[in-house]
């Protein structure tokens, strides 16, 4: 599709002194004009992607500058102003007394179709960070992403619009953001607070934000991502590499820490004792380095790329180019330095590039291990859940309280494929159905289907219900399985939940069962359990899991104890109950008994969602009940 551009250029020209206005009107390539620059005592200039043109014959005067200032909106504390209902941005330079001595008038445009380059990634639901030099078109791309997600993907999108640049000046957002909602920010310094407010008050599925630039904003971004909301944002910096070494913002891509290895470990790794490692999971799973309107380099797995960068290994990225004439997007895999990946495509038994609906795309394998795995998936067809033990009979699975629950004979578990002490009882069982749901402890099943008939799609879309999303994505990433975590229960192929939730609220999963989705039940929120479940589904050997778990645990600091934390569990349950009341038509929800401290947190959370809450009963059974506020 060719781009459709709305630029309301006339509205900006009307604010300029008449001679400059006329000079712009005489330009042939006005539709490519980026900025008009007025500096006191100099000739006015027009900036194009290719260079500048002169727009006046006499130097700019104070009167010229005042002419413009009188016709535009008020300047904010960031020295930026706009023109109501347009996307233009006018930035001022002032002398030491505050008087305007220079103006940069940027022509804002809504460019429909500019998302083409990364549309597939945006729709996958991962958080995306867009980098690029000033003026490369980041805000324009962000605006189009907001519109497409709101209007075409029907998502609840909130734009946190610090300088009113994404949705334009004035209180009514520019149609360039479609149905996305916009929150204005009174003072730039409050951007981080508005980001959090957006999540707490307006239930967005996606938050769009221009220019994450401070530590507080980076921290707010992490909080938002941890709440399972997709973030699409821009930040200063041209590349993932320079963001990583920027102390203020490196947390966005996982951050760096120095660790000291023991002598033995250093010898084994052939490294020095003091090495640099990624500190945490990146807030943004994907980084897009925008190079121009039609070119970008995409890092689809930021965690992996950062790990490789820190180990001094070559990194592999995708270079995406959009053909201006045909609109077709081409994807090339490149290594550091922009070289094609040698041999890519040749050894995989498939074409190097694939053409789908005008989109030329490659296969997205990552490391060698995953590479092998995915290519074996291709040659053998996707494996279904591994074969059920032919001997039949029941299987005893220990539940949380170390008692044993008997699963009906139709519900069969796989013979264990290894006996690593790490997984022990956590090993996921693969179950067939025809059982009262309350009999289930942990396992994977699909309603009314023999387990062996289940064949996951090429990418398994998983909807987490009470399960920690970060750990889920980290476990899939480390195992190298094609799992996408979605916020949309309907589009999911599988629902992953905890035994506790499943026991207490099976009705939540009834819809998923009716739609014959795969249901994965974990005993608790640990990476080890998640990996075992995925391993079962994707037929991954045990040693790969143990290796991957060891890495994940080191990176995330994961441990059973941390996730058995009753406080965290209680708050997850509260969030879930609130979700039920707000979205599922329940009028009340009663929470499990909890101590006074947790009850206080539960009341606070309910208040943030404008719900009423009361404590009921006597200790130790005192519990919080949440009600929908009367309309
Ligand atoms: N795809 C496009 N087609 C036509 N014009 C575009 C396109 N993308 C951006 N522009 C124009 O390029 C200029 C710079 O774009 P934009 O403001 O989005 O850049 P930016 O990277 O956000 O800049 P900054 O970092 O300074 O905020 C604007 O005039 C915008 O209208």
UniProtKB/TrEMBL annotation:
It comes from Dictyobacter arantiisoli. Residues 373-393 are annotated as: Disordered. This is Single-stranded DNA-binding protein. One of its GO terms (molecular function) is DNA binding. Residues 568-630 form the R3H domain. The keyword NAD does not apply. The keyword GTP-binding does not apply. SMART domains: AAA, R3H. Keywords: ATP-binding, DNA-binding, Nucleotide-binding. InterPro entries: AAA+_ATPase, P-loop_NTPase, PTPase_dom, R3H_dom, R3H_dom_sf, Spore_III_AA_AAA+_ATPase. It comes from the Bacteria.
